[in-house]
């Protein structure tokens, strides 16, 4: 499913003196199979934008198409189609472990599945839940009957993500997926997302404050600032102008920073900002 | 959705009424409410209404906002009105309109309903012009004498301000949980009563868990800073009575005197 947004505008608290413009004429295309990064300073409209993608925030003005679903401001709303859309576009909020509520991991993960497929048999539900738990790296035999509240923070988050991917969405949107995790938890979760992207060929969209994460994983990036998209393209393009990135109150990824420093010393490293490529290019330069 | 929820609907502006000491406002509200209950005829209520209108005019709050407070108790007002209308104890010489409705019953029902409306509108002038924080400060200061009989006044005020402080936070959290469960196909607007109640579980449990987590964290943070309650604590904003408060008190005294006079002479 491809996502096409054209001229999206959104204002919070419309027509009151507290009104805030959250999206300002946003144009963006996210292709099927993208690992898309959305970055920007706090309050730049990122969260508002991603919540448009499965109609949690209704489009006020502009065109938005997600696959065959037309979410545009003037399009006809169909409740049944909306449910299908939400099962196809999985949304993982910030700190998703705070949404767990059932007494067993199994029931919590099954919540989304039963909501979207009320006709599914017990067997089908169990299969989907076990599949989702295995995908997030939790052994279903071991965890299914445990209480989600007894798990560690990282495990809780995995359960919450399993609760979203249980419906087998084609697009997975994650708002700050690794916030608050320890370094090991971060690495594991990013690895999980890469697996979902490569092996399950899901389109992944992440909102992140961690530029390294974005440079390392995303093939495309969009930078939000004050509701507008100010830059978009490959990480290399987006992070090419260090001055502008600084002006947007963002950082360069570590690789980008190194490239920039080396360039000022007269060494030009032309890499795509992933660690692997950076090291390869450095080795090439060393060899001459 | 829930972002619009603000407790006490404080209306941020500056006016004479806003600047009054919260204690003055609390005491004068009590005087106002008392005079509404002392009044036993429509003249007394008219005097209270006049007082209210003048207070609203001085508060720089749009009259519409004050009126909106009645909306939340509209059902109660109508209910009281109907009950009083239907179950009015008929006396000799009452004029019956039809069935068991009498002119006197109609008047008495209207009187009670007006009393309720005036009551709520008066209280909303207080909440519209006073921030929850200064309101708690005022209550704490007024209850101070109770601390001599070992009543934990400061702790009570602290509990109140913490509760008030966390209402918007929890509202925001509720909003986020609702969105998250909606994204997982949660349906909260359809089905019969019981189905809807059941649909609230995925919202209420995470909300409660979150509230306990926050309480725990806040408790730890307070302990870490050696918070010890009322002993020797000073205030950032000291409450002080001024000339304004005297004026407001005189004005309210006029209302009370007026109501009492109207009660005696009519």
Structure write-up:
The complex is a heterodimer of chains A (288) and B (266). Chain A is of the alpha/beta class. Chain A has two domains: 250 residues, P-loop containing nucleotide triphosphate hydrolases (Rossmann fold), CATH 3.40.50.300; 36 residues, no CATH class. Chain A is 41% helix and 21% strand. In chain A, helix 3 packs across helix 4, helix 3 packs parallel to helix 6 and helix 4 packs across helix 6. The mean pLDDT of chain A is 88. Chain B folds into two domains: 160 residues, no CATH class; 72 residues, no CATH class. Chain B is built from eleven helices and two strands. Chain B has a two-stranded antiparallel ribbon. In chain B, helix 3 packs antiparallel against helix 11, helix 4 crosses helix 6 and helix 5 runs antiparallel to helix 6. Chain B is globular and about 70 Å long. The termini of chain B are far apart. The relative contact order of chain B is 0.16. Classes of the chains: A alpha/beta (288), B mainly alpha (266). The interface between A and B is medium-sized, with 25 and 20 residues.
How many individual β-strands of chain B? Answer: 2
Task: Find the CATH superfamily of the largest domain in chain A.
Answer: P-loop containing nucleotide triphosphate hydrolases
Termini gap of chain A: 44 Å
**Helical segment count of chain A:** 12
| Fraction in helix of chain A | 40-55%
Total number of domains of chain B: 2
Coarse morphology of chain B:
globular
* Whole-angstrom Rg of chain A: 20 Å
CATH architecture grouping of the largest domain in chain A: 3-Layer(aba) Sandwich
| Structure classification of chain B | mainly alpha
Q: What is the overall pLDDT average of chain A?
A: 88
Low-confidence segments of chain B? 1-7
Distance between the termini of chain B: 50 Å
- What fraction strand of chain A? 15-25%
């Amino acid at each position: 499913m491809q996502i096409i947004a054209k001229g999206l505008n959104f204002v919070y608290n419309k027509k009151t003196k507290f009104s805030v413009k959250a999206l300002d004429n946003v144009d963006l295309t996210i292709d099927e199979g993208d690992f898309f990064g959305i970055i920007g300073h706090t309050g730049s409209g990122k969260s508002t934008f991603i919540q448009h993608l499965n109609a949690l925030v209704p489009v006020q003005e502009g065109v938005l198409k997600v696959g065959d679903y037309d979410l545009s401001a003037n399009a006809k709303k169909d409740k049944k189609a909306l449910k299908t859309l939400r099962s196809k576009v999985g949304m993982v909020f910030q700190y998703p472990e705070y949404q767990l509520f059932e007494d067993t991991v199994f029931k919590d993960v099954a919540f989304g599945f039963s909501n979207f497929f009320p006709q599914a048999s017990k067997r089908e539900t169990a299969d989907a839940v076990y599949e989702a738990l295995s995908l997030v790296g939790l052994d279903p035999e071991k965890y299914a009957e445990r209480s989600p509240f007894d798990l560690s923070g990282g495990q809780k988050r995995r359960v919450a993500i399993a609760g979203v991917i249980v419906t087998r969405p084609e697009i997975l949107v994650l708002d700050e997926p690794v916030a608050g995790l320890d370094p090991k938890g971060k690495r594991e979760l990013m690895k999980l997302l890469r697996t979902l992207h490569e092996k399950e060929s899901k389109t992944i969209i992440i909102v992140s404050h961690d530029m390294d994460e974005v440079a390392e994983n995303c093939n495309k990036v969009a930078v939000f600032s004050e509701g507008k998209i100010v830059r978009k393209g490959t990480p290399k393009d987006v992070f090419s102008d260090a001055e502008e990135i600084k002006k947007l109150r963002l950082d360069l990824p570590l690789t980008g920073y190194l490239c920039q420093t080396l360039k000022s010393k007269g060494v030009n490293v032309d890499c795509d900002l992933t660690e692997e490529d950076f090291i390869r290019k450095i080795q090439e330069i060393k060899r001459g | 959705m829930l972002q619009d929820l603000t407790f006490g609907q404080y209306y941020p502006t500056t006016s004479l009424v806003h600047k009054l000491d919260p204690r003055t406002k609390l005491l004068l509200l009590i005087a106002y409410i008392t005079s509404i209950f002392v009044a036993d005829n429509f003249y007394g209520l008219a005097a209270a209404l006049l007082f209210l209108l003048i207070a609203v005019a001085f508060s720089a709050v749009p009259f519409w906002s004050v009126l909106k407070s009645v909306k939340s108790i509209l059902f109660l007002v109508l209910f009281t009105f109907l009950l009083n209308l239907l179950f009015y104890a008929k006396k000799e010489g009452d004029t019956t309109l039809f069935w068991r409705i009498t002119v006197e019953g109609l008047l008495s029902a209207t009187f009670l309903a007006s009393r309720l409306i005036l009551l709520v509108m008066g209280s909303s002038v207080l909440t519209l012009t006073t921030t929850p924080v200064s309101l708690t400060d005022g209550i704490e200061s007024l209850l101070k004498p109770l601390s001599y009989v070992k009543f934990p006044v400061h702790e009570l005020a602290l509990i109140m301000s913490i509760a008030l402080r966390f209402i918007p936070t929890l509202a925001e959290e509720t909003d986020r949980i609702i969105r998250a469960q909606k994204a997982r196909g949660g349906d909260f607007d359809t089905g019969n009563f019981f189905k809807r109640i059941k649909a609230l579980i995925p919202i209420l449990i995470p909300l409660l868990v979150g509230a306990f987590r926050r309480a725990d964290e806040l408790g730890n943070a307070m302990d870490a800073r050696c918070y010890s309650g009322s002993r020797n604590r000073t205030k950032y904003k000291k409450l002080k009575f001024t000339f304004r408060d005297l004026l407001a008190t005189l004005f309210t005294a006029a209302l009370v005197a007026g109501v009492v006079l109207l009660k005696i002479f009519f």
